[in-house]
């Protein structure tokens, strides 16, 4: 019997069984990359043949919607219909562009490295460097597939738990990382606003509707900022101030009939959370300073990456202004009224960076470069890592 079990285990963990999902995953990722580069869209151009007509009347420029554009009557419009592959051909890949592309890649590496260090610190060395790297890359992979804070965080708990950390502590660490991320926003935004002033950060004449109420870009920003501030307070309260009361609230919430089937899990989770909260309260100041330093480094690298890409297409930029615009734009995306910020994201990018920093004719080019640097690397790395990771962690 033992020989049969050993043979079955070796067969299940064979290189062939791992290679098949990797090859299939890479094929899917390659197809997604090809599809993205082949997608047809409209870009601003002084020599274009199309004009924007806003067919659905939503006031949003959807660069991928054919119904939003039509051929100009005289053949002289402000938009051209091209693929993203054509957009990339506009890049003049000289030495200067190559240097800034490499700097952008370095920012990408720095962002991941800072997250790895943060996880190592917050887990108090529970995970090895390899485990931390795998978890962070898979976390980013999950976020790329489900681009939302809730989706990525929920999957992160699974990753930590599968690596051998109990559910309560896994949840608490994810909550602490979310708290540090929110703290970055809450603290950095006032600094940028006081330094630059709101007039430079917010686009003019942009109005959208939220729950039927018209709001300017600045109004959207303050809604997002308020939401982030409240979320930060809830996280601090749950982890540091009164985890017992938070546990009680969660138990009451999961007493609702359609949620009651998960109540037993919440009981165990609440007990673990209280134990973890007690442990976290006893952490030295250096623990928090290291975690926060890694958080600020990672988020700063994320935003500086775009600054480097901007310098590929424009001679020079106001770095602090570009950094600040990204902060404000991310806040607005938190309260986007459309699923996945569809339409709003593209329109916001045009509004925040078009003309004020980047010529409108180059905004599409910058957008595809940004996507290639911030989406597909995690997609390919996740495909490569996930099968081996599942195989390794399944041996426990």
Report on this structure.
This protein is mainly alpha-helical. It has one domain. The chain has 16 helices and six strands. The protein has helices at 2-12, 15-38, 84-88, 95-122, 129-145, 149-162, 167-196, 198-201, 217-241, 243-253, 263-281, 285-313, 319-334, 344-353, 360-374, 376-393, and strands spanning 40-48, 50-52, 69-71, 77-83, 207-210, 213-216. A hairpin with a 2-residue loop joins strand 5 and strand 6. The longest helix is centred in the middle third of the chain and has 30 residues, at 167-196. The radius of gyration is 24 Å and the shape is globular.
Please indicate the count of domains: 1
Give the beta-strand count: 6
Tell me roughly what share of residues is in helical segments.
55-70%
List segments where confidence is low: pLDDT < 50 over at least 5 consecutive residues: 1-15, 337-343
Mean pLDDT: 79
Secondary structure elements and their pairing?
Elements lengths: L1 H11 L2 H24 L1 E9 L1 E3 L16 E3 L5 E7 H5 L6 H28 L6 H17 L3 H14 L4 H30 L1 H4 L5 E4 L2 E4 H25 L1 H11 L9 H19 L3 H29 L5 H16 L9 H10 L6 H15 L1 H18 L3
Antiparallel strand pairs: 1-4, 2-3, 5-6
Helix pairs in contact: 2-16, 4-5, 4-12, 5-6, 5-16, 6-7, 7-9, 7-11, 7-12, 7-13, 9-10, 9-13, 10-11, 12-13, 12-15, 13-14
């Amino acid at each position: 019997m033992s020989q049969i079990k050993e043979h079955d285990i070796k067969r299940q963990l064979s290189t062939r069984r791992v290679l098949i999902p990797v090859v299939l995953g890479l094929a899917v990722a390659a197809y997604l990359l090809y599809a993205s580069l082949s997608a047809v869209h409209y870009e601003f151009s002084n020599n274009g043949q199309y004009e924007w007509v806003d067919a659905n009347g939503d006031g949003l420029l959807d660069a991928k919607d054919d119904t939003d554009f039509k051929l100009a009557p005289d053949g002289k419009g402000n938009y051209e219909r091209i693929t993203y592959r054509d957009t990339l051909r506009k890049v003049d890949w000289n030495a200067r562009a190559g240097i800034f592309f490499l700097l952008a890649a370095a920012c990408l590496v720095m962002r991941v490295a800072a997250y790895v260090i943060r996880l190592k610190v917050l887990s108090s060395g529970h995970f090895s460097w390899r485990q931390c790297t795998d978890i962070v890359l898979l976390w980013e992979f999950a976020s790329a597939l489900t681009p939302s804070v809730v989706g990525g965080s929920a999957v992160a708990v699974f990753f930590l738990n599968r690596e051998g950390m109990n559910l309560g502590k896994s949840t608490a660490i994810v909550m602490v990382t979310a708290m540090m991320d929110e703290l970055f926003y809450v603290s950095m935004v006032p600094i940028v606003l006081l330094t630059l002033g709101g007039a430079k950060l917010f686009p003019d004449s942009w109005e959208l509707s939220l729950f039927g109420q018209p709001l300017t870009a600045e109004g959207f920003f303050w809604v997002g900022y308020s939401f982030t501030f409240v979320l930060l307070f809830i996280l601090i309260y749950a982890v540091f101030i009164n985890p017992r009361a938070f546990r009680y609230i969660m138990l009451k919430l999961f007493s609702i009939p359609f949620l009651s089937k998960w109540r037993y899990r919440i009981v165990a989770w609440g007990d673990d959370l209280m134990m973890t909260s007690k442990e976290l309260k006893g952490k030295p100041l250096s623990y928090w300073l290291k975690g926060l330093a890694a958080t600020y480094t990672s988020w700063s690298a994320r935003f500086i990456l775009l600054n480097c890409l901007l310098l590929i297409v424009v001679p020079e930029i106001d770095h602090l202004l570009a950094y600040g615009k990204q902060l404000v734009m991310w806040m607005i995306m938190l309260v986007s009224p459309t699923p996945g910020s569809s339409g709003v994201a593209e329109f916001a990018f045009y509004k925040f960076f078009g003309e004020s920093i980047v010529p409108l004719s180059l905004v599409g080019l910058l957008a595809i470069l940004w996507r290639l640097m911030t989406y597909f690397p995690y997609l390919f790395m996740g495909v490569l890592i996930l099968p081996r990771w599942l195989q390794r962690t399944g041996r426990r």
